[in-house]
Amino acid sequence: MDIHKPKPWHGWREFVGEIGVIVIGVLIALGAEQMVLALHERQLSQEARESVRAELNLGLANAKRLLDPAEPCVQRRIAEIGAVLDRAARGERFQPIGYVGIPPTPAVYTQRWEAAAAGGRTSLLPINEQRDFARVYAQLGRMQERSGPVVTAWAHLAALEGQSTLSPETIARAREALAEARFQDYGVRDNFEQAKAYAQPLHITGNAQIIAYNRGVMASVCVPITSTRAEAAAKTKHPMGVP
């Protein structure tokens, strides 16, 4: 095997030329690496964006499907129960409440957002887009946090079912529960409206197709207040019955 000795440079010009070739080669390699990295990050951010948008669109669609039809029923039920309490407080006769019901509480999904954040993908999105996504999730989250107080308030109101006479203590407790139910209903609607408003700049409208096992089921709060529990179960057609 022949071993060739390195040829000596003939002057500084040749030396600088060799160094220049090396530097240019390194810069080209670094530039290509940065380009590949940028393309990869762009792909990751786009995947995160599409995933999060789909999740929010589904959450808004689910909330809209449940809340919009039930809201008039909630307002009517609150007024009906208030009228019964007023008559009882005045010592007037009233028709006993048959069934109170409960407003629907939509589920909020955040798994995709949490996964994207944990994987660092949300940080690849523009800061304004991150803010808009976070605002929608925050309002939907607050709406879901109200599900506990909503259930508690309406469960206390259900204690009025079948009672033909109400003591002053019972009326006082029912008024407190009714005020809580009214307050939480306002909060749910406010959170939902804010979520929709924050979703507008993102062009997310809640138009996702919902595949639900209880499609077409009537909210229990929409059942007439004079219904028996058995009648309420038959009217809602919910597979789990009525609460």
Explain how this protein is built.
By secondary structure, this protein is mainly α. It has one domain (12-205, 215-236). The protein has helices at 12-89, 111-118, 127-145, 147-157, 168-199, 229-236. Helix 1 (12-89) runs antiparallel to helix 2 (111-118), helix 1 (12-89) runs parallel beside helix 3 (127-145) and helix 3 (127-145) runs antiparallel to helix 5. Residues 36-40 have low confidence and may be disordered.
Q: How would you summarize the topology of this molecule?
A:
Layout: H1 12-89, H2 111-118, H3 127-145, H4 147-157, H5 168-199, H6 229-236
List keywords for this structure.
243 residues, mainly alpha, 6 helices, elongated
Summed up:
With 243 residues, this protein is mainly alpha-helical.
